[in-house]
Every structure is written in C-alpha cells, then in structure tokens.
Design goal:
Elements: H1 9-14, E1 23-33, E2 38-45, E3 49-55, H2 60-65, E4 73-84, E5 87-99, E6 109-110, E7 193-201, E8 205-209, E9 212-222, E10 228-234, H3 236-241, E11 250-254, E12 257-260, E13 272-275, E14 281-284, E15 313-323, E16 327-330, E17 336-345, E18 350-357, H4 359-373, E19 379-388, E20 394-396, E21 402-405, H5 410-420, E22 429-430, H6 447-452, E23 462-473, E24 479-482, E25 486-487, E26 490-491, E27 497-498, E28 504-506, E29 511-513, E30 517-520, E31 522-528, E32 531-537, H7 539-546, H8 550-559, H9 563-573, E33 577-589, E34 592-604, H10 607-617
Parallel strand pairs: 3-5, 3-6, 10-13, 18-20, 18-22, 32-34
Antiparallel strand pairs: 1-2, 1-4, 2-3, 4-5, 7-9, 7-11, 8-9, 9-10, 11-14, 12-13, 15-17, 15-19, 16-17, 17-18, 19-20, 19-21, 23-31, 23-33, 24-30, 25-26, 27-28, 28-29, 31-32, 33-34
Family: Belongs to the replication factor A protein 1 family.
Subcellular location: Nucleus
Main location: nucleus
C-alpha cells in the first residue's frame, strides 16, 4: 500500500502553519551534543522537499528506543520553527510514529527559503519566557466570600503586548479575542481571552499510561467577578508555561480547549477546565489589578465537617490551639515523608485535627509550632483541605492545599476577637481524635444495641466502642495482594494481579513491578454477653488483632507452608478480650442493603482503666439508660 506524505508539508511549516499536523518521513537521525545535553537532529521530508529538524529533549527516548529511526513515517503533532545561525530549524515537540520504517519516498531535495511562496517564514517561533518583574506585593489576602454577579458588559478586544506575544504562529486576518468573565466560558466559543490571578499552582507530575510517559501541571485562576477555573498543561506545553506561571500574578490567557472538569481531582466551582495547547498564549499583566482578589474562600464551620462527605475538598478557618512535632513517616514503597498534626477550634464549639504532609510540615508547620510554643495562638485559614473519616473526621493537606497564617479578612478578625474575649478558655469537643480506652465520653455499646438501635442506617456512619471477645477468625482468605506505589501522599493499595511475565500489575496505576504488598482484609467474629456479630478489619487494625503483618502471615501459610505454626498463631489470638473502635454504615451489595461493621482500632483491655470507666458511670446511670456498665 503506497504511503502519501503531506503535499508541500515542509514549505507550509516554514511559512508559519503550526496547525497542519503533517505526515513526513525521517531521512536521517543523528545524536549530537555532549553527555549532559543530548539532542537528536533529523532530516524530515514531504517526498519533494527536506528540512533539518531537532527533537525536543522529552522525545529523546523515542530515538533511543528505535521508535523513531531512519525511514520512519511520522506525524508531527506539536512543533515550532527556530532560527539558528541564520538557518530555520523545525523543533519537534510532539509526534506519533505511523510506520516504523520504509524505503525513501519520492526524490526529496533540500528546501531553500528562496522557494517560499506566501507569508515569510517565522524567524523565531520558540516560546519566549515572560520576564517576571520583582516587586514587593503585599502578602495580605483579600478573602471576601461575596462573589460579584456576572456583568455582561462588552469589553474591548485584547491585544497582547508586543514583548509577550511570540508564543507560536498567529494566522493572518485573525480577529482578536474579547476579554470575557470566567463564568461565561464554554466549549462552543471560538476565540476568547480571560484576565485572572493565579491563586494556586501544582508541581509538575510525571505519569505513565498506555500512550507512554508524560508530564502535567495545573494552576487555578480567579477573576474580578469571582469566577474560578483550573488550567492544565501537558508535555511540551508544560515546558512553555511552567516557569512563567507564578502564584499571585495576573495574566491574560487566550486560546485553549474547554473540557468537563474531573471533580475527583478538581474542587473548584466550575464545570469546565481549560487545557492549554501549542497555540495558547499567556501574557503577564505588569500593572497590578486591585479588582481581582488575591484569594477566594468558602469557609465552613468545624461543626459541619462532621457531616461532610469523605474525600471532599473544603475551606476552613480556625485558631491553632496545639501543634505536634513533625515526624518522619516511611511509606510502604520505601520513600520517606514528613507528617505533622495540629488542632484548630472555632466558635462552633468543635475542634478538628489538621494533618500536614511533606513540605507543609517544614514551611507553615514549623512557623506555627514556634508561634504556639511562644504563647501565641494564630488564626489559620485552610484553602482546599481534604476530609478524612477514617477515625472520626479530620482534614489533611493535598498538593493543591494552601495555608494562610493570620490572614487579613473579616472572618479571621471575628475569630481572633472571639478567642481573645473568652473563646480561649471555652472547652471544645474534638471531632477527630481517638478517645483513649476507658474515656468517659466514648460511645460504649453492646453488640445487641448495634442492631436494636439501628446503628449505621442514617446518612452518616456511627462510631461506637465495643468490649468483646474474638471467637472466630476466617483464615481461608485473610489478605490481598496490593499495589505498593504511591499516588500523591497516599499509597495506591489497589488489588494487583500477576501478568504473563510473573510480574505484578496494577490496573489503576497501569504499571508492573517485581514485588507487591500484602494487606489485611480480615473477617472475624466477636461476642459479648448480649450476642455476636461479624466484623471486618483492614491493615492497621488487622495487625493489632493478629499481632503480625499480613505479609508475614501469608509467608507462613503459603510460602513456608508451616501449617502448625499458622494454626497456633491464629489460636493464640482467639478468646482474647479487646476494646474495638467500630465504624458502622449501611452499604449496598447488589440490590441488598447490609450494615457493614469495620474495626478501625483494636486495643487490649486495660482493666484498671475499664474499671474506673464503669465506676464513673454508676452515678450517671439513671440519666444515661443507653450506656453500658
């Protein structure tokens, strides 16, 4: 089957057509440069004309692996033209290999610029990085929650300033885009421009999927009408814009595609997300625009976190009442990170734990600890914290979280005034911290009360403590093979299977690895004087119940096949009296509703503490008929 290359592809590229996506052939490929900066030079042909080209460094692996070689037919996806020593070079930013290798097509000749017909070739299409001026902007944040309504006024056409608009070819006779509010963006608009402030910027992340390796970063925008939207860049676009974008600066952005926002990762109040492309432009606004706030919050009282959905993203503000030291945490994949836990309280009478991860521990966490140690209780605003309901409710930082210490806002001033006028000494109830065994405030129940009181059948889970005896442990399936890779601040933990080459494969991460992790999925039966029930325990609580790791127990049973040792270990954990912190929630299995009981913590019974707990209940028993004694 004959291969038809793009007719006049080379002249069109050199004339400034950056949207052609031509089909070309690689006549030659050669490694140039030194060990520290490897580059590959190509000769590309459209069957009539040929031209020198360079591979962007992120495509070097294509040449090293042989995916692109002499004779390959490729389609250029993203590319620009650059003038080097008075010669025009095509810089290939992204491409796809169509045919790995074939004979030379046509009789191509070196293209000369004197043959150009039409517009003059662009002398330098390389992306120009914006020079960010150094200015002392106030760190004070404007955090008004009063979002202005959209005013549909016609704004003047946006023309990028000359020093900032060489971000790719601009087609002739193209009408300039009008500046519109973020709230008015939709996928059906042709040309648009928005003026907005960058409120958050994520790190560049690497990924691997069926299409190969890649990189991505995102940033959030806020305009003067209170509209917010996330902008995402991939691969070559990352190289163009990552160094330009700076939190707090105002930019003019135009050209890009709008796609539905992925709400699992995007917490902003916008159904769309902008994906920048090779033709997109970003221009720094040198004059500060005071009409655009520095940040926008939607604070929720701490008391409302109790009913917040797990993994939801929220904004909170509170007074820091305690800060724990930062401690190293070793992940299962061998990587070490830092964790620091602090407590916040507000006027709602509740307090909540905030867990800082990674760099937050050493930046804001260290500053907060120094302030609290010196007797100062600062106000802390948390933008985009993640709700966790593993043991009660708590908030954790994620990559998009931002922390503001003593912000200049009405909410912060009101909270400071309340705290200084007596809020400091008002007791608050924690919605996070595990209550110690034998605490007066723990919600102690019997097994029969779980069913009799219909626990777990409301919209949110019930959390109770039960003192019971382990009477049976299911041993035919007590753990599963899990993915050891880390996604963000958390381990993946999804179930993995063996692939054909005996490696473990995770469908979620789309990666293979030599060794997997083993995690408990333990089912056991507990009994007290009122009845018995089945309980499920995962990793940490499973280790507390069995006294060893899931991997060790798996190796004893399946690798060493030491059945006597395995049986004795299980028997040693039976008929032990334990104090279990249980999460009770109704779940749907097929079309059937079942109440699932999960052990999130298991402690040995401290009989001294338990006796004191019972003695303290005696005077109050008549007022607390549902309490166990």
């Amino acid at each position: 089957m004959p291969v038809h290359l793009t007719s006049n592809g080379i002249p069109a590229i050199l004339a400034g057509d950056m949207n052609l996506k031509p089909l070309l052939q690689v006549l030659d490929i050669k490694l140039i440069g030194n060990n520290t900066q490897e580059r590959y030079r190509l000769i590309l042909s459209d069957s009539v004309s040929s031209q020198q080209a360079m591979l962007a460094t992120q495509l070097n692996d294509r040449a090293k692996s042989g995916a692109v070689r002499r004779g390959s037919v490729v389609q250029l996806i993203d590319y620009i033209c650059s003038t080097v020593q008075n010669r025009t070079i095509i810089v290939v930013l992204n491409m796809e290999t169509i045919i790995p290798e074939c004979e030379v097509i046509g009789n191509p000749k070196i293209y000369t610029e004197s043959d150009t017909v039409g517009p003059n070739p662009i002398s330098n299409g390389m992306p120009q990085r914006t020079a960010i001026p150094s200015s002392n902007h106030s760190s004070t944040t404007n955090m008004s929650n009063n979002v202005q309504t959209f005013r549909p006024t016609v704004q003047p056409a946006y023309q990028p300033p000359p020093s900032y608009k060489s971000h790719g070819a601009i087609m002739k006779n193209e009408a300039p885009a009008r500046i519109i509010p973020i709230a008015a963006l939709n996928p059906y608009q042709g040309r648009w421009a928005i003026k907005a402030r960058v409120t958050a910027k994520g790190d560049v992340r690497r990924y691997n999927n069926a299409k190969g390796d890649g990189k991505v970063f995102s940033f959030d925008l806020l305009d003067s009408d209170g509209g917010e939207i996330r902008v995402t860049c991939f691969n070559a676009v990352v190289d163009r814009f990552n160094d330009i974008i700076e939190v707090g600066k105002v930019y003019m952005i135009s050209k890009g595609s709008l796609k539905p926002a992925k709400k699992n990762f995007n917490h902003l109040n916008n159904e769309w997300e902008i994906f920048l492309e090779s033709s997109s432009t970003i221009d720094l606004c040198l004059d500060e625009d005071a009409s655009i706030p520095q940040q926008q919050f939607s604070f929720r009282p701490i008391s409302e976190i109790e009913t917040a959905e797990n993994n939801s993203i929220i904004d909170i503000i509170g007074v820091v009442i305690s800060v724990n030291p930062s401690v190293p945490i070793l992940r299962k994949n061998g990587m070490e990170t830092q964790r620091r836990i602090l407590s916040l309280k507000d006027q709602s009478g509740k307090s909540v734990e905030l867990t800082l991860w990674g760099e937050f521990c050493n930046r804001e966490g260290q500053k907060l600890q120094e302030m609290v140690d010196s007797g100062v209780s600062p106000v802390l605003a948390v933008k985009a914290g993640k709700v966790n309901d593993f043991t009660g409710k708590s908030i954790g930082t994620v990559s998009s979280t931002q922390l503001f210490i003593n912000p200049d806002s009405a909410e912060a001033k009101n909270l400071r005034s309340w705290f200084d006028r007596g809020g400091r000494i008002i007791a608050s109830q924690s919605i996070s911290r595990d209550l110690p065994a034998g605490s007066k405030n723990e919600n102690r129940k019997t097994i029969s009360q779980i069913k009799d009181e219909g626990l777990g059948r409301s919209d949110k889970p019930d959390w109770v403590t039960v003192k019971a005896t382990v009477t049976f442990i299911k041993t035919d399936s007590f753990c599963y093979t899990a993915c050891p890779l880390t996604i963000g601040d958390r381990q993946c933990n999804k179930k993995v299977t063996k692939s054909g080459d005996s490696k473990w494969q995770c469908d979620r991460c789309n990666q293979e690895f030599e060794e997997c992790d083993y995690r408990y999925l333990l089912q056991f039966q507990i009994q007290d004087h009122t009845g018995l029930t089945w309980v499920t325990a995962f990793q940490e609580s499973g280790e507390e119940i069995l006294g060893c790791s899931a991997k060790d127990l798996y190796m004893i049973k399946y690798e060493a096949e030491d059945h006597d040792h395995f049986a004795n270990l299980i028997k040693s954990r039976l008929f032990a009296e334990v104090l279990l912190k249980l999460k009770i929630k109704e779940e749907t299995y097929g079309e059937e509703q079942r109440v699932k009981i999960t052990a999130v913590k298991a402690d040995k019974v401290n009989y001294s503490s338990n006796t004191k707990f019972l003695l303290d209940l005696i005077p109050k028993f008549n007022q607390r008929p549902g309490q166990i004694y």
